[in-house]
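Retro notes
What went well: the complex prediction finally ran end to end.
Inputs used:
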Amino acid sequence: MLTAAKRQFKISMLSTKYALMRAMVNKATFVMSIVFMILNNATFIIQYLILFSLKEDVGGYTFNQVLMLWALASGTFGVAHFFFKKAFNLSETITNGKLDAYIVQPKNILLQALTSDIDSSAIGDMLYGFILIFVSGITIKKFIFFTIFLILGGFIHVAFAVILASFSFWISRSDIIADTFNSMITHINTYPEGIFGGITRVVLYTLIPVGFISYVPVQVLTSFNIMSFIYVLLFTAFIIGLAFFMFYKGLKKYSSSNLMISKI
Amino acid sequence: MRKYIYIFKSEFMSSLQYVSNVFINYIGYFIMMFMFWNLWKYMYQDEANLINGYTMNQMVWYVAMTEILWYGLGGRKLCRRITDDVRSGNITYNLNKPYSYVSYIIFSHLGEILIRTILYTVLSLTLFNSILGEFPIGNIYEALGVFITAFLAIVISILIITSIGLISFFMEDASPIYWIYSKIILVLGTLFPVEFFPMFLQKVFKFVPAYVVSYGPAKLFVDFSIDKFVEIIIVQLCYLLVSLLVANLIYKKGVKKLNVNGG
């Protein structure tokens, strides 16, 4: 079991490595997409400078906490889109019957599909996350927990996208719904929890799990609480399990489009 | 002109096939607006407060209007379409056609987004009028003024994004430039009116595209005045002329560099 997991991890890493090498063929474009992504994210600082000039806090967050929120939002997005880009157009792959190339390989179908492509500009998102966490004031403990939260948050993003994409096995044209909800999670991630009312907050910890990607991690990074950390770990394990369950349940309904694709 | 109207009409007819998608995509717009409504409710606390001359209702209407223009425009898709046309060589199909590529893009994109923009406007005006209960437009003349500036804002946006997409003639991917442009529009015109920035920056921002493609129509919608209307129309006409010239210039220069492998 452990050896199989190790092999699968090695193959997924190799897949990412080759996708990265393809993206680096044109070095100028590769570097530019990363630098511009950092600049693109940085423009939002202006938005918060204005909001903080109107009020001392935004949704109960200090400016430092907003920096942490943005570091997590941007970093988790980066991890998800760099390592598992395919999760965000998996719905289209299923709808168009293009999963065959992954099904015939003697490895985990879902992981093979998810790691088959990368988004090089997402490196800019990850770097921006680390820049902001340094600006917000860094300690070794904070750095370690931030890195763990980036990975866990990235996994939650991906698992959520896989669950949405899995609906395509049963509902046609659900790719629009998946796109809408995936971009929604990205947008909500960048606004403090305190601006929302009671019912919305419940939704943000259940149906749209922004709370476990950003809000709880910000609390833990501000004042460490082992229980909150464990909640994030448990939720991540739960949503990953649910994503696998949904995907493989749906896979039984999959029908190919007989499209000839080579997957090397 | 008849050929462009035909292009507009055929794109419009084609977009009617996907009306149900507009309603699903509207969920995204609605959630964004729900977030901003919550944000401004928190910032205002007391709804009777004025921040930089705006009441809370005016702020929500302002953002609703700028977001209609933004979501209706579909700028990312337009930029991607032009970039793909250039990179894949598909743009060569337009070279031997008896029309200008820039004009073709303007009319085909207007045809594509017409039904979406109309539906977004109708749904949003109905929704926010029932929530806020205070419709900012007083009479038909003000509505006409807002409509003219909104239409010009969309055409100018299409021209600017076309220019950005055509930069692909000179570099492999123009998307990063579009990211920066979209964030400038978002931060300097969509989320906040110009009045929220320091005085010295407000004068500079009159020269930023966000002033004409986002702030102008939304400001007139929430607080119409003839002076402001005339000022915005003049700046918009200047922008229209310059962006049209720039888009055509980039196309003419770029198309000479085009190198397509047959296939």
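What we learned: Chain A touches chain B through 34 residues (CB under 8 Å).
What to try next: split runs per interface for comparison.
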